[in-house]
């Protein structure tokens, strides 16, 4: 019988909901049916997070120094001891949290690149704490790209009936048009194709959104479609991909939702994520595509306002773990 994949789960911001949703996830049959989990974080923080939950985990939580020590059916934590005894501030930002969270991610990526874990699932981090700690990364995606030496990567979210991948990620809306060019759009279409193939879609049907209302209306509302997006779609079709677009963004999501397309290429963050989160908030999964490792994450932030209260919903993390395990299984078979 094949062993279940080993999934490294990073604890995220120690003052956010990450520790709580990890513990709740470990208390579900769904996670144990999918994988062998190993937590990368601080055992002391996890123990404190148990307080308001009034639950244990389905398995005793052991401490290991390497995933090779993980026994079948065992829950374990690699304790990095990144948080000092008096540093933890639940529900509040702090430089210590930024340092700790980046340390967890670095360790998980190291293990994944070495083949010691089959995938990485990340609990949420906070951009403010990263800045306080002196890091310039706008989020997980850019940090993971740097750690893996990846230049062609993208952010995709999967939820409900939709898969959405973004051409631009975390930038001001006023800066988006300047980042839309044929190379960026074509590269994202290629990533969409490979991501769908990795998820078991043999012939992905890709739809590309316009940047402007009515996809520019022939240049009346903007020329990005004519100059950049249409040429990218034509080039992708010439490479043999099934690409439709650019279509007006106010209608294409309905068509994708109804099953006409397998993935949407959106031009900017909110264009793609508002409809997806409308359909699947709390259950969607963030996937970084283009990396040499498998990485999934939750679709929400650190939720400082409810951290430490025992009321955080673990569903998105559970979905992220299940998807990571599924993708790892496909990669192993391939």
Describe the model.
The chain has 334 residues and is an alpha/beta fold. The protein folds into two domains: 1-150 and 292-334, Isopropylmalate Dehydrogenase (3-Layer(aba) Sandwich); 151-290, 3-Layer(aba) Sandwich (Isopropylmalate Dehydrogenase). Helix content is 39%, strand content 17%. Strands 3-4-2-1-5-12-11-6-7-10-8-9 form a twelve-stranded mixed β-sheet, sandwiched between helices. Helix 4 packs across helix 6 and helix 8 (182-198) packs across helix 9 (224-238). The protein is globular, with a radius of gyration of 20 Å. The mean pLDDT is 93.
Structure described in brief:
The chain is of the alpha/beta class and 334 residues long. The chain has twelve helices and twelve strands. It has two domains: 193 residues, Isopropylmalate Dehydrogenase, CATH 3.40.718.10; 140 residues, Isopropylmalate Dehydrogenase (3-Layer(aba) Sandwich), CATH 3.40.718.
Keywords, separated by commas or semicolons:
Isopropylmalate Dehydrogenase; alpha/beta; 12-stranded mixed β-sheet; 12 helices; 2 domains; 334 residues
How are the elements arranged and paired?
Layout (H helix, E strand, L loop, with lengths): L5 E5 L7 H8 L3 H6 L1 E6 L1 H7 L11 E3 L11 E5 L15 H19 L5 E4 L4 H6 L7 H9 L5 E6 L2 E5 L9 H4 L2 H17 L6 E5 L14 H15 L3 E6 L1 H9 L5 E4 L2 H12 L4 E5 L5 E4 L16 H19 L1
Helix pairs in contact: 4-6, 8-9
How would you spell out the order of helices and strands?
A: EHHEHEEHEHHEEHHEHEHEHEEH
- As for the number of domains, it is 2
Q: Residue-averaged pLDDT, rounded?
A: 93
Overall geometry: globular
* Low-pLDDT sequence parts: none
The main pleated sheet reads as: 12 strands, mixed
In CATH, the architecture of the largest domain is 3-Layer(aba) Sandwich
